[in-house]
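Working notes for the structural subgroup meeting. M.R. asked for a predicted model of this chain before we commit to crystallization trials. I am recording the input and output together here so anyone reviewing the notebook later can reproduce the run.

Input as submitted:
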Amino acid sequence: MAGYFITGTDTDVGKTVVTSLLLSYFHQKGIDVYPYKPIQSGAIYENGNLQGPDLQMYERVLTSLDTNKACTYLLKKASSPHLAAKEENVWFDIPAIQKNVERLLALHDLVLVEGAGGLIVPIQEDYCMIDLMKEIDLPVILVGRAGLGTINHTVLSVMALKQANITIEGIILNRLHMEDESIEKDNAVMIERLTGVKVLGTIPHLSDVEDAFKTPQAYESIFNRLNAAKEDIKQ
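Returned structure, recorded in token form:
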């Protein structure tokens, strides 16, 4: 059994897209891979049912996805989990989340756990995402923006992960907007130099996410640097 915890330097850096690309990549290689989103805020009602946007993206890759198995808490308010939970009268059972991860790890070859927001996003008023990551104890894939401003955010995130003694598998940068390529290339070099953590690569700007999910081999040069890909999930 193997797994990764996918986190980001901030909200909306592309964690779900990267998680879904990884899901597609390993799935097409014949690996029994499964996604898990412990807490999803910003859920919406569709056809009378509460739906999680991140889960819907996973379903584009795994059409047989059991969303009840892939998510423990669905919250309507698009905010930090602690605030959404407070307003919706929800209390997060952290041990239950841990047990769900353990169950999935026992059932599948590879589990991709996606966090909410960045590292210091509160889950409860005195408990942040990084605390959950430490308890789940999976290697972390850190997703950051490729463009201007990412050095500061990414290096600070790595510093926090190292201080918490959390293993970092690598960094993936995501080209959210068409920006100066020379800046983006230098960002990757400087992040690696300043942190000592490998930058696995940069996801190009995606004009068609659906097409990207169908052709995950296009990201072979990035994803084949992961230990899980090198080991082919051998037990």
